[in-house]
């Protein structure tokens, strides 16, 4: 099956589905066995990992350039929508969410974020749901951060602000006040 030639340049940010956003450092030739193979060397700084992908297998592996700002905005808009039906048992839904996260597709990531985000400050999440949500949000935020030239935490916060995800309640402030009162009573 013929594949279209993907055109990547050194220094370009790319998305590898199972790892997220990385920077193409160079294309180098390596000899494996008796064959010379052109390899794309991609740095995933956040994961402290260098990945080498054979150039002729790049498209098959799902490697792609960053999404456009328009496509990212569409994905975030999709994440604002109503959560999908939850008629499957959690194990199957979790497997589907995992597959969507590893697809690297912004719209599928948006589905996971949409379905798992907290709608009110009193909503609770299971540990596994929270982990899936955070992974999907991070993958979206990686692209968003590069597109908007900001750091990852700011990008995550911005996406959650756009979606209207309630912020966590800071219980430490209340606890500190109570500690101060107890200390003054002891004196």
Describe it for me?
A hairpin with a 4-residue loop joins β3 (35-44) and β4. The N and C termini lie far apart (81 Å). The chain has a five-stranded antiparallel beta sheet with strand order 4-3-2-1-5. With 187 residues, it is of the alpha+beta class. It is 48% helix and 19% strand. It is elongated. It has helices at residues 58-61, 69-79, 90-103, 106-116, 127-148, 152-163, 171-186; strands spanning 13-16, 20-32, 35-44, 49-54, 64-65. The protein has seven helices and five strands. It has two domains: 13-65, Thrombin, subunit H; 69-163, CarD-like, C-terminal domain (Methane Monooxygenase Hydroxylase, Chain G, domain 1), CATH 1.20.58.
Tell me briefly what this model is:
This protein is an alpha+beta fold and 187 residues long. It contains 7 helices and 5 strands. The termini are far apart.
Write the layout of secondary structure elements.
Blueprint: E1 13-16, E2 20-32, E3 35-44, E4 49-54, H1 58-61, E5 64-65, H2 69-79, H3 90-103, H4 106-116, H5 127-148, H6 152-163, H7 171-186
Antiparallel strand pairs: 1-2, 1-5, 2-3, 3-4
What are the key terms here?
2 domains; 7 helices; five-stranded antiparallel sheet; Thrombin, subunit H; about 190 residues; disordered C terminus
């Amino acid at each position: 099956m013929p594949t279209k030639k993907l055109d990547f340049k050194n220094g370009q940010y790319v998305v590898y589905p199972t790892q997220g956003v990385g920077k193409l450092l160079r294309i180098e030739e390596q000899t494996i066995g008796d064959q010379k193979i052109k390899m794309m060397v991609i740095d995933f700084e956040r994961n402290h990992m260098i990945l080498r992908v054979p150039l002729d297998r790049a498209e098959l592996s799902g490697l792609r350039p960053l999404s456009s700002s328009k496509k990212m905005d569409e994905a975030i808009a999709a994440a604002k929508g109503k959560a999908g039906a939850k008629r499957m048992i959690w194990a199957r839904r979790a497997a589907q969410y995992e597959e969507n996260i590893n697809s690297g597709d912004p719209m599928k990531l948006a589905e996971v974020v949409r379905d798992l985000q907290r709608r009110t400050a009193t909503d609770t999440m299971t540990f596994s749901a929270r982990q899936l949500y955070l992974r999907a949000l991070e993958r979206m935020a990686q692209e968003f951060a590069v597109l908007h030239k900001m750091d990852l935490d700011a990008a995550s916060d911005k996406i959650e602000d756009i979606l209207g995800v309630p912020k966590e309640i800071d219980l430490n402030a209340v606890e500190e006040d109570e500690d101060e009162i107890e200390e003054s009573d002891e004196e």
